[in-house]
Amino acid sequence: MKNESVKKIHAKKGVMTQIWNNDAVIPVTSVLYADEKEIGELKIGDKVNVSGRSKGKGFQGVVKRHGFAGGPKTHGQKNRLRAPGSIGATAPQRTIKGRKMAGRMGNERVTVRNLRVADVRQSEKTILLKGAIPGIRGARVEIRQKKKTA
């Protein structure tokens, strides 16, 4: 199957804000900065995919990293609230590959799909997208617009 992307637009993430229109508010809007040549093909209402590196969260435990429930607060427990529990049976005498454990979280490539273009401002070299995009302020992101199928 062929790649259906028209082209990639390289942009820089700005701030997240609310844009006030005459009729209503656009809830959460991400501001992106790109070259005038690149943003020429985008139109208001287009759906795009945005890829970038997520915010790094550092070393995190299993509750935050994988959504484990943790142990009970009562019934004789003292310090097992956010612990992972058992990490394997006695019989294999090793930890099975792929076991979810504590470790570094974030700072990986993430794609947010089907974000709607709220506005394109050629003079300011900005693109406004409805929704959140990955990364810190000033991070480089990649915008891909899908071809319209007839």
From TrEMBL:
Protein name (database record): 50S ribosomal protein L3
UniProt GO BP: translation
Signal peptide (residue range): none
Organism expressing this protein natively: Candidatus Jorgensenbacteria bacterium GW2011_GWA2_45_9
SUPFAM superfamilies in the record: Translation proteins
Higher taxonomy: Bacteria, Candidatus Joergenseniibacteriota
Stretches the record annotates as Disordered: 55-90
Record text on subunit structure and interactions: Part of the 50S ribosomal subunit. Forms a cluster with proteins L14 and L19.
Presence of the UniProt keyword RNA-binding in the record: yes
GO molecular function: rRNA binding; structural constituent of ribosome
